[in-house]
């Protein structure tokens, strides 16, 4: 189970690194030529990776993932003990959170990171698509 969770989390970064790598390789292929068409076309892969990352919560949750996964601010757990705080004298409780709740919140965080990274990749890819061929004129 842990392997699939780590693999799923790493997939976000693999999409980003792969799309940027394609652009870097195509930039080296076009280096010194009169046109940077391969570099310009590689921007489409960057935009595609950005779109995939931006829609991660929808791919994961379906229609209910629109706008990100809902988080109602409530954590589910069980009370395992209580104690008195020596600093201020308050009674405190000790709560043990359920693993499902922790995993759900982790997925929400990954959805947010993927959304921000996807938006950034979409912007960078659009700039590469639109203006990548102008590198030959510099």
UniProtKB/TrEMBL annotation:
UniProt KW Transmembrane helix keyword: yes
Residue ranges of the TM segments: 12-32, 38-55, 113-134
Keywords: Membrane, Transmembrane, Transmembrane helix
Keyword Transmembrane: yes
Protein name: MotA/TolQ/ExbB proton channel domain-containing protein
